[in-house]
Design brief:
With about 80 residues, this protein is an all-alpha fold. The chain contains four helices and no strands. It has one domain: Recoverin, domain 1, CATH 1.10.238. Helices cover about 60% and strands about 0% of the residues.
Length: about 80
Amino acid sequence: MYYSNVIYSQSFFAERFFYLFDKDGSGFINSEELMEGLTLLTNGSKLEKLHFLFQVYDVDGKKCLNLVLFKKHSNLMKKVTNG
């Protein structure tokens, strides 16, 4: 999914996690997709988790991050984690 106009809010992460968990693109997360995603986040290697995080930030699917988007995401992460 391509996000041409990303809304930077706390729901950003929920929307990206949903999209990444929804492997078949159905618009729904079935129990297998949920278990696979949660297993990755809880038991995955550091490299697997880093790859997932990169996918969260790579909203346009170009497999690269530009500085402006990275800064916006970093600032959002600070807001989310600091309450």
